[in-house]
Amino acid sequence: MKYNVYLSGEIHTSWRDEIIQGCKELNLDIEFGSPVTVHRDSDAAGDCLRAQEVNYNRDHQSAKINAIRTKTLINNAHIVIVRFGDKYKQWNAAFDAGYCAAINKPYITLHDEAITHALKEVDSSAQAWATTPQQVVELLRYTLTA
Description:
With 146 residues, this protein is α/β, with parallel strands linked by helices. It has helices spanning 15-25, 39-43, 55-76, 91-102, 120-125, 133-145; strands spanning 3-9, 30-33, 79-83, 107-110, 128-130. The protein has one domain (3-145): Rossmann fold (3-Layer(aba) Sandwich), CATH 3.40.50. The longest helix is centred in the middle third of the chain and has 22 residues, at 55-76. The radius of gyration is 16 Å and the shape is globular.
C-alpha cells in the first residue's frame, strides 16, 4: 500500500525534512504533500486575480486560493501530521486539525509538551500525539507495514 501523508503546520523548522528523510531511510512508500511554505508566495496566491489595496482583502483572496490546495491534499491524504511550534501561533494548523476531525480524517499532532494545555481539544481528536519527528516516522512505519 502507498500512503499519502499531508504535513500541516509550522514552517520555520526542519521537521518536514526529518520525517521525509526518516521514511526514505526505511523505504516506506509514502508520498508527502504540504501547504506552500514560503510566506511571500502564500500571501500572494490570489494576486493574479486582482490587486488588493487593503491587506485584509489580499489575505482573504489568497486564503481562498490556498484552501484549494490544502483541502485537496487533506482530502486525498490517508493521514495528516499537524505540527505546532512554540514560537508562533499556527491558527492554520489548528484549522487543518479541525477540518480533519470534521471529515473523520486520521491525524497525528506533533508538538512539545509545553503547549499540551493549549492544544487539549486538538489533541483529544487526534489519533496520536508525538513530540519528535522520529516518533512520527515510527508511527507511519507501523501503520504502513505492521
